[in-house]
Amino acid sequence: MQKQLDIMNTIDNISFHGERVVIRVDYNVPFDDQNRITDTTRIESSKETISMVLKKGGSVILLTHLGRPKGIDLNLSCSLIVDVTSKILGEKVIFCPSTIGEEAEKLSKTLLPGEIMLMENVRFYPQETKGEKAFAKELSKLGSVYVNDAFGSAHRAHSSTTIIAQFFEKKYFGKLLEKEIRSIDKVINNGKKPILAILGGAKISSKITIIESLLDLVNDILIGGGMAYTFIKAQGGAIGSSICENDFCNYAIELIAKAKAKGVQIHLPKDVIIADSFNNLANKKVAFINQIPKGWQGLDFGPKSIEDIKPLIKKSKTILWNGPLGVFEFDNFSKGTIKLGELISDATSKGAFSLVGGGDSVAAVKKFGFNNKMSYVSTGGGAMLESLEGKKLPGIEALM
Ligand code: AMP
Fold first, then answer.
1. Rounded distance, CA 291 to CA 244, Å?
2. 9-179 adopts what CATH topology?
3. CA quadruple 198, 391, 11, 46: dihedral sign
4. What is the CATH number of domain 191-388?
5. 186: Cβ below 6 Å to ligand 1?
6. Is 227 close to ligand 1, i.e. is its CB under 6 Å away?
7. Which of 331, 227, 245, 235 is nearest to 284 (CA)?
8. How many helices (H) and strands (E) does the chain have?
9. From the CB of 327, is ligand 1 less than 6 Å away?
10. For the CA of 206, the nearest atom of ligand 1
11. What's the rounded Cα separation, in Å, for the pair 184 and 386?
């Protein structure tokens, strides 16, 4: 990764005068059932790169995917995001109803410096996810320069995220991609110790690789959320009907031993808020995590557990947060996650570096208004986790 930082060809010192710049963005935004966009962060995050290219004399051709269409699906047409994109960018955005072919090429060639065109969903073409070279070549005909700013898709070797790069002499890292890489580097290569990883969320099974990689990197791991109950059950605790992956109990024990051998301290909650059903309005009370009565389940961090983590967060100089500490979607069980957000915000304001990544912790951070209080909130769940695991992302490799 350090090498990556040294040779990263960013757009800072590039003139785009007269260039038609194909920018692969990640506008895969969520919609509600009335086709309204519920979170525009991904579009907002692309603004810096687009503005910079326009300011330096280029025109912009935006490529993105939207959802997982199987062929052409007008419910996932990029025409649905043109107006919002235009509003956020503060610029007119022309929509091109195709992605490759005669019409697409012709329209892209008529763009004047300062103009922006959004192409139709790249995934309307099944060749995209197969990473087909011929399709990538067609896409490359849309412009003279390629910029990748789609961190959220950088772990996929798709035509528009990876394969396309080979058809351009001039190819660059967009500002978002650059920021994501620099933030991850601040944790995995230049993380100031002590480094704390906070892992929450529902399941341990989906986080095994990341936990294993973190053992070589961090000083402390705080386990919260649904994941904690597998560890407690494995150690003989009574967890009632709390979420648990029985098949991973042995693994949890192994992990505790591995951590010990590597000098990494694993912290588990002592008390939790338990509920008599999986429901926001369920009856609730505080219980020791290893003494949960039958018919009750743990849904949030408890008050003693919150007190316990205060000194841990205070002493940590680098904090990585992935996964909520409880069922934050239920107001009555979101207190632990909110409290954690407050503690990390406070530590950040006092100089710690905090990186939040992975779908649900990002959603929680946004829901409770902590996004501007963390050092960096990643836009890419899978891509961020793979980077932290030390994997090389094909989208990034292709730009080197
Ligand atoms: P993940 O995608 O693995 O990070 O899991 C996130 C989900 O875990 C969120 O939707 C939370 O509601 C859920 N979650 C967190 N804590 C618990 C818990 N104690 N019981 C059940 N689900 C939980």
1. 15
2. Rossmann fold (3.40.50)
3. negative
4. 3.40.50.1260
5. no
6. no
7. 331
8. 16, 17
9. yes
10. 3
11. 11
Residue 229 Cα: closest atom of ligand 1: 19
Strands 318-322 and 284-288, sheet pairing? unpaired
Spell out the domain ranges in the chain: 9-179, 191-388
Report d(CA 233, CA 236) in Å as an integer.
Answer: 5
C-alpha gyration radius of the chain = 23
Residue 341 identity (one-letter amino acid): G
Q: Is the pTM of this model over 0.85?
A: yes
The SS3 of residue 36 is coil
What is the whole-number distance in angstroms between the Cα of residue 103 and the centre of ligand 1?
Answer: 46
Are both 9-179 and 191-388 of the same fold? yes
Active site residues: 42, 203, 359, 382
CA atoms of 118 and 88, how far apart (whole Å):
14
- Averages of pLDDT over runs of 10 residues in the chain (400 residues) are 73 97 96 89 96 98 97 96 98 98 97 98 98 98 98 96 98 97 93 96 88 95 96 98 97 96 98 98 98 98 98 98 95 98 98 90 92 93 88 94
Pairing of strands 171-173, 220-223: unpaired
Which of 232, 233, 243 to mutate for ligand 1's pocket (most ligand atoms within 8 Å of CB)?
Answer: 243
Ligand 1 neighbour 324 (Cβ under 6 A): yes
